[in-house]
Amino acid sequence: MTALERTYRNGRIAIGGTVLLIGIAVIVTSFRTGVLGSISAYYYTPARNVLVGALLAASVAILVLSGRGAQRALLDAAAVVAPVIALVPTPVGAGAVPGVAVECASGSRCVPADVLPDVQVGVAVYLIAGALAVGVVVALAAASGAGRGALPSAGVAAGVLAIVAAWWTLAPDAFLAGAHLAAAVVFFGLVAAVAVVNAVAPPSRSGALPAQPTAHRRPPARWLRRSYGVLAAALVLDLALTVAAVLTGHADDTAPPPVLMGESIALALFVVFWVLQSAERWDDPDPAVLAARS
To answer: Which residues cross the membrane (predicted)?
Structure first.
């Protein structure tokens, strides 16, 4: 195994590890706070550092391992959206999180005032760092042609950053009220879209996984295509039910909390998606490098 292959495989394992960290943090914290109405609500507990760090790490890893073609564009967009889930908390109501004072000027749910400075800094850093990253990619492509293949991804990132910046600047109250949910739905929706892309790919003639990567990879085996299709359908259904629970005012229901269940299922399906991706692409150290060598 080469160093490149080892790095590639470790990155794939690390993405699954970030979800494991989120699960452990939620379980450990629940012994102190009780079970909350959603995973997102744990932002207001001591689990916050783990949740934010895991989501940011996952976004970087997804960006690195996004692949090629339509999948690359979709996963790059998901990776750029993911930090918004981490940095902008979900609105909560009074009593939703033990020990957290919630006083909303209007409505029954809001982002508590004492965390607003953290959100402001987080969003500012996200926008500035994202703009710098896009600028570096464009500058490298213009100066030497290096990284020209990343220009589509840079365009996707610039679009996402522009939307976030406009929403945050022009309607900050609406941003705080809806950005977390919107980002989560977009993120998992993009993952579902990638699963659909893989599900409709023509089947491999041999029905087996490709043994070694090439510049032109064989399409996924039939069992993988079927698995991607089932996963996409399950993820879309789960997202629809979870959003419906939020919009109909059942976000804080108990026994069991519907949003908590929906988020848990979405994360589990994301892990399944990444396991399928890793099974299919385990021997692909870097498709872009392989294409350049061919």
So the answer is: 12-31, 43-65, 77-101, 121-143, 150-168, 174-197, 227-247, 259-276
pTM: 0.84
Q: How far is CA 168 from the centre of its chain?
A: 20
Query: In whole angstroms, what is the distance from residue 78 CA to residue 84 CA?
Result: 10
Can you read off the two tokens belonging to residue 163? 């939307």
Question: What is the rounded average pLDDT of the residues 139-154?
Answer: 71
**Which residue has tokens 């929706």?**
189
8 Å CB contact between 292 and 27: no
Backbone phi and psi for residue 11, each to the nearest 5 degrees, phi listed first: -65, -40
The whole domain housing 132 covers 3-293
User: In the numeric block, which tokens belong to residue 264?
Assistant: 């848990």
Q: What are the C-alpha distances in Å from 97 to residues 33, 176, 184, 244?
A: 8, 18, 20, 22
Percent of the chain with pLDDT over 70: 83
Number of domains in the chain: 1
End-to-end CA distance of the chain: 20
Asked if 221 and 203 touch (Cβ cutoff 8 Å), the reply is yes
**With 90 as the cut, is the pLDDT of residue 210 above it?**
no
Number of H helices and E strands in the chain, helices first, is: 9, 2
Q: Residue 253 in contact with residue 193, Cβ under 8 Å?
A: no
